[in-house]
Amino acid sequence: MRIWGKVLGAFFGFLLGNVFGLLIGLWIGHRFDTGMGLQTGFRRRPSEAQQTVFFHATFSVMGHIAKASGQVTESEIRVASDLMDRMRLTGELRTRAQDSFRQGKAADFPLRATLAEFREACMGQRDILRFFLEVQLQAAFADGSVPPEERQILEVVAEELGFSRFELDRILAMAEAQRNFFRSQGSTGSRQQGWSGQQARQAPPRDRLKDAYQLLGVNEGDSDQEVKKAYRKEMAKHHPDKLAAKGLPPEMMEMAKQKAQEIQSAWEMIREVRGIR
């Protein structure tokens, strides 16, 4: 918490204008402290150096996870290529991303050093670190499940980024539920439409409803208030504007928007089933 702007502002304000000056100085100091806070971590528009660290870590760690169980599969390569497409990486940027993926497959890839550099570059912004971890889970789930070798790598990633085993288990469970939720959506609506209209008037399959709860990190027996709180918490973590303010590179924004839409879709299903208004 930054207070020196308020302290100095109040002090000099009081010298210049007694109590009224103190209040004005306190307000100006608060604005200064707030402005300084917004400058920590990634800036709203990350520098080229920060983007380089972000992209290299994203694709090299993804390559390392893909290689952990031995042979890199077509599904894992497709996940990396799809990510590059969604980030609209072309030309030199795409070549660099592909090179990073290949570097990650090397036996001597410096995983911890790469993650430490990434963590330092984003100044420990927890929402950005979690977003990074969730991106890596896409590679881990590429073949439908997470083998033990890849799980071990994910544990190292989580540890270096400051997440506990318990938190990793929770994020993995939510990611698996998300995957199952949208894998079964083909027959009930498009990924972008959410849960509305005719779709909302039909009772969803129980397994899919269970995945919706898990995607939000709650249980079916939780109260409406608890479910609503969890939904708002997940949206706050993944809201594109918030992530942008913390420095998520513009190329990653489409993924952030999609994640927010997925959370919204799960919430809409639960809300309609429960009759929450």
UniProtKB/TrEMBL annotation:
Residues 1-6 are periplasmic. It is found in: Cell inner membrane. Residues 211-277 form the J domain. GO terms for cellular component: plasma membrane. It is a single-pass type III membrane protein. Residues 183-201 have a biased composition (Polar residues). Residues 31-277 are cytoplasmic. GO terms for molecular function: protein-folding chaperone binding. SMART domains: DnaJ. The keyword Transferase does not apply. Its main location: membrane. Residues 183-207 are annotated as: Disordered. InterPro entries: DjlA, DjlA_DnaK_co-chaperone, DjlA_N, DnaJ_domain, J_dom_sf, TerB-like. Keywords: Cell inner membrane, Cell membrane, Chaperone, Membrane, Transmembrane, Transmembrane helix. The chain crosses the membrane at residues 7-28. Signal peptide: none annotated. The transmembrane domain is a dimerization domain. Homodimer. PANTHER family: CO-CHAPERONE PROTEIN DJLA (PTHR24074). Regulatory DnaK co-chaperone. Direct interaction between DnaK and DjlA is needed for the induction of the wcaABCDE operon, involved in the synthesis of a colanic acid polysaccharide capsule, possibly through activation of the RcsB/RcsC phosphotransfer signaling pathway. The colanic acid capsule may help the bacterium survive conditions outside the host. This is Co-chaperone protein DjlA.
